[in-house]
Amino acid sequence: MNLEIRDIKKEDIEPIKVITAEAFAKGFIEEVENEDILDAAITLMFINPILNKSTFGRVATLDGEVIGVIFGSRVDEIRSYRLLQEDYTKELLEILNLNDIERNLFVEFTSKTDDAYSKLIRGKENEFQGCLEFFAVSEKSRGKKVGKK
pLDDT for 9-30, tens place per residue? Predict the structure, then answer.
């Protein structure tokens, strides 16, 4: 068993999407079976904003497999993960072409996520020197102290 913590590479984005879906999109995943829609939602709700904001990022790998991720940002540091972004036209088109049921689920999922974050930082938005933008560990690796490392 070889646990490694390292900087994020472009090829880590897809495994990060899987971990993100496991950690944050359970209810949405159960309602929407179309893989393209799920990928678009995860990409546009999580991956794109995280890559836009972050100045720091690491993945935890176990025997070469990405099992955890952390992104953060510090005031006045360069947002260096923007370079990992790709063309998200396909994902935007997926979201724009949702049927009414899927659109309502997407809006509800987005609203719940935004509301939770807003409640966490209410009244303190301008007091941070930095921010933990995102943290998740794969379902199979939870409880094994990966996050602590």
Answer: 999 999 999 898 888 777 666 6
Q: Cβ distance 69 to 134 under 8 Å?
A: yes
| 58 in Cβ contact with 2 (< 8 Å) | no
Residue 110's identity, in one-letter code, is: T
pLDDT tens-digit profile of 30-80?
Answer: 677 778 888 888 888 888 888 888 999 999 998 899 999 999 888 888 888
The arrangement of strands across the sheet holding 3-7 comes to 3-7, 56-62, 65-74, 130-137
Whole-model pTM? 0.77
| Structure-token pair, residue 34 | 């179309």
Which one-letter DSSP state was computed for residue 10?
A: G
Give the distance from CA 1 to its chain's centroid.
Answer: 26
